[in-house]
Amino acid sequence: MDLSVIIVNWNTKEFLLPCVRSALESAQGISSEVIVVDNGSRDGSGEEVKKKFPFIHLIENKKNLGFAKAANQGLEKASGGYLLLLNPDTQVKGSAIERLVSFMESHPEAGVAGGQLLNADASRQNSIANFPSLATELLNKSLLRWLFPKRFPGKERGYLKPIEVDSVIGACMVVRWDTLDQVGLLDEDYFLFLEETDWCYRMKRRGWKVFHVPQAEIIHFQGKSAEKETALAKIEYYHSRYLFFKKHRGLFQWILLTIGLNMKLWVEFISMMIGCLLTFFTIQTWRRKLSIYATLLKWHLKLCPAGMGLRSTQ
Questions:
Q1: Which of 50, 97, 250, 272 is deepest in the core (most CB within 10 A)?
Q2: CA 263/CA 254 separation, integer angstroms
Q3: Long-range contacts of 122-125 (CB under 8 A, 24+ apart)
């Protein structure tokens, strides 16, 4: 078996089925298997997969275990020499999977390769992630990419050939089995967000390289699982950032990050409250943002308990 495609799903039935179909079509020239790990969906995802694709491997969890733990279930079951993590809200274009595998075959130093993620209108999404630092987490990422494009590569530049990067976005990433054998599985301390960044960080520390391959294109409908629980997903994002700093940046930088993010949150909350008051709370988008900021501040005031995020939906 050359390739194992692993898809972790949570309540995205309408995207999952086209995703599986596109992956099968894109990997036609490769000996491959597809493993779907359903994280306790309530929308009938598992039943539809069994009905439409009875030949693929399906793991059905009774509750939402988080992305890292569910992906690890798929990785442990996989038998391919390459392992493709693919989000259920994606559709693989053309021979993107074959291109990623071919790149890995011709670059033995590559531990990971990720493709170019696209919006539904074919515009570029950010497909590259820098390792979190005080600069990336406290300053404007778009501004950093504009001012320092070599240090902070992003969607603003159209790359014509593969480039080495810190990390790739986990919506579509191919990992070499030998790399996994050395570095281990995803860190299950992360429930959602940054688990792939942490993985790439550990891989690079072991001497493997990470590449962005722009010729492999994948449509990504972005965050369809998390958008149904936006405030809870935001909590998980903050939790993952703090966790990455605790694991890899040391106590001093973690303290600075915590202070900086709290200050930013209070400024955003107060600014949005003023805007809502001046408009008599008539703008729905502003009311929604205000509610999210309030939830995040409440979480911080309670000293960031893990059980307040998406884990509470288990």
A1: 97
A2: 14
A3: 122/219, 124/155, 124/158, 125/155, 125/169, 125/220, 125/222
Overall average pLDDT of the 123-147 stretch: 95
Domain positions in the chain:
3-224, 227-313
Q: Would you state the pLDDT for residue 313?
A: 63
* Span 15-38, pLDDT tens digits: 999 999 999 999 998 999 999 999
pLDDT at position 307: 83
Question: Which residue, chain included where needed, has tokens 């033995």?
Answer: 108
The C-alpha atoms of residue 175 and residue 293 are separated, in whole angstroms, by: 36
**CATH of segment(s) 3-224:** 3.90.550.10
Mean pLDDT of the 116-127 span: 95
- Provide the token pair at 101: 């595998």
* Residue 263, CA atoms < 13 Å, CB-side half-sphere: 9
